[in-house]
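Input/output pair, single chain:
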Amino acid sequence: MGMLDGLLGGLMGSGGGTQRQSPLVAMALQVIQQNGGLPGIISKFQHGGLTDHVDSWVGAGQNLPMNGNQLREILGSGTIGQIAEQVGMSHSDASSGLAQVLPELINRLTPTGQVPENHSEMLNQVLAALSKRTA
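Output:
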């Protein structure tokens, strides 16, 4: 569980504190799962015109930033609206927050620069660990 603890600690420790980040991390993980896991969400961003961004998130080096508008274009405002409602945020705050969390999450879930073979299992473990932390 060391990698999972490091992943969650790093995500929730980066800006905004645990209170604000936990729901966004959980929502980001759900968005990844709902879009076909890591390969699916990566493909969705690539087809949405963010290939260079995704390559930076998966590969080594600095992550290219994404903004809330780019995220809304790719995921759709309906998805962002559902997430905003679930976490009790405005559309703008939810899309901006997810635009910060998703790249970092994808980066941390691909530590070797590629999608791990056990990515589905890893997502399930991270979600389970996160729900235990916030319970």
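Confidence is low (pLDDT under 50) at residues 14-20. Residues 18 and 90 are 18 Å apart (CA to CA).
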